[in-house]
Structure formats: structure tokens, C-alpha cells
Amino acid sequence: MTRILAIGECMVEMAPTDVAGTYKMGFAGDTMNTAWYLRRLLGTDHQVDYFSAVGTDSASDQMLDFLEEASIGTDHIARSPNWTVGLYIIQLNEGERSFSYWRGQSAARTLAQDDTLLENALMGADVAFFSGITVAILPKGDRDRFLAILAAFKAAGGTVVFDPNLRPKLWKSKEDMTSAIMQAAAVSSISLPSHEDEAEWFGDTDSLATAARYAKAGARTVLVKNGPAEILIHADNTVTTLSPEKIAAVVDTTAAGDSFNAGYLAAIVQGASEMEAAAAGAVLAGKVIRSRGALVAKAT
Ligand code: ADP
């Protein structure tokens, strides 16, 4: 049995319905989306847990119910009466989606306050999965300790998987973001960046430059996603590429990267080669972007 611990922030999502002015409540967030797809792809002989923090209000209760219904383990999610969960609203304006976020009171920002909680959650885990958003929401001191715990987990034989998921709005400055992202990359065994974002913030000229930077930081495997363009796989000092299937009817690219990560990781856990796993990631992401929303049940 493989036990995967995904670490980060899940939020309440208010998504517009077909009736103008009305919204449907759901739950989403990059690391949770990946956990959700992993849970659906992996059989019951594997375990997928989520590590975060929530409040004690009813929105937090509903979030935990949602995770439990999805069979994602919630035993290590801390609860605090002083906080709640983050929220975002999706607005549609002539077909264009825009997002407004309320995450200042999100308990997830405190997830690394107490080292022992994360250390306990990692006990018996084989894989820890986190993202650039996970580190962006942490205060600097907590972030440093959080990354030190992941480094120790990796040193003890665990696999640390990181999606940089660059979100400049969550950082004070470009320098804060890029230095923290590379600090996180340094504790990771597998890095799963998306070239377009990386090119913008790190100035990478191509996917190979992105892969080389993450490999140099310490990852043994780097997969560089690039929307519809070819995926670059840098593993065991060799570089290969794979073209995702062309999709004419892209409906919504939300969670393309998150679902790709899940398809890839589930395949790796089940013994696939890097190439097979990248293909599995691309197939799942390809199905997810043919439908609206982050969590597409019929894609799995
Ligand atoms: P992110 O959501 O992190 O920005 P990408 O946009 O790079 O990630 O997409 C992740 C994966 O989703 C790609 O590697 C590819 O497999 C698939 N994908 C995304 N957009 C498309 C598209 N337009 N056509 C086909 N596949 C796509």
C-alpha cells in the first residue's frame, strides 16, 4: 500500500449556475484537486490523505464532510475556532471567467504552525505532495520549518512531489516568490512545473531550461507541462518529450495541471514508467478540460 499525503489549502468555491445571479457551493484548491483525482484513480489498497487546517464553523464542517465523502483522509486536518476556510467566487462575463478570492481568514495559513502535526501526518507516508500555493500562504518562519520537515522526510526515503503553481498575487514581490519556489524545489524529488508560468517569472527560454533549473535544484525527475504543447520529461539524466492529444473542444482548462499531476502520480504509484505516467497525466487532463469545473467525476 502506498500512502500519499497532499498538503495545502482547500477553499469554498461559489460557481455560477445557469440561473443568473445564483451560485453553487463546492470545494476546490490545487492540492486538494490532485488528491481528489488520485483518490478516484487509485484502488482502495492505496491511501490518500489531506493535510491542512480549517475552522470550527459550519463551512469548515462541510469541507471535511466533502473530503470524507470523497474518501480522502482528514485525520490530520487541524481545527481552530479563530479561523475559517478561504472562499472564491467565479464570475462569468460574456463567457469569460474571473475569480475573486477571500482567503485572509483561511485556517490553512496556519497549517505549519505546529511542527508535530505535520511530522505525525508524514509518519508512514510514502509520498508528500505540495505546491507553490501551499508555501505562498505560509508566514516566512513557518515556511522555512515546513520545508525543513519535508527535507527530512525526503532524506529518510520519502518521495516529495512539488508543483510550483506560481501565483504572483500571493507573494509580496517577484523575488520573494522566486526564491521561496526554488527553496521548495530544493526539497523535492519530483517537480511538475508548467512552462508558460515559469518562462514569465524565471525567464526560461524553453521547457528544457525549466527542467534544467528544477533538476539542478535537486529533483531527480522533472516533468514540464506546457498547455497543448509537448510535455518534457527529464528523468535519470535523459530528456524525452510527449505530445498531448489535440483537443478541439476545450471547455474549461481549470485544474488541467492538477489533474495531470494526479494522473501522472497514480501511474507512478502503480509501477508505470515515467513516459507511461506522463501519458496517463495528459489523458486525464485532456478529459478534464473537456468539461466545466475543477473536479470532473466522469474523467476518471
Ligand atoms: P496548468 O493548468 O498547471 O497551467 P498546463 O496548462 O500546462 O497546466 O496543462 C497541463 C496539462 O494539461 C498539459 O500538459 C496537457 O497534457 C493538458 N492540456 C492543457 N491544455 C491543453 C490543451 N489546450 N489541449 C490539450 N491538452 C491540454
Automatic annotation (TrEMBL):
Keyword presence, Transferase: yes
SUPFAM superfamilies named among the record's database cross-references: Ribokinase-like
One Gene Ontology MF term: 2-dehydro-3-deoxygluconokinase activity
GO cellular component terms, semicolon-separated: cytosol
Residue span(s) of domain Carbohydrate kinase PfkB: 1-294
Keywords: Kinase, Transferase
Family: Belongs to the carbohydrate kinase PfkB family.
Protein name from the UniProt record: Putative 2-dehydro-3-deoxygluconokinase
UniProt organism field: Octadecabacter antarcticus 307
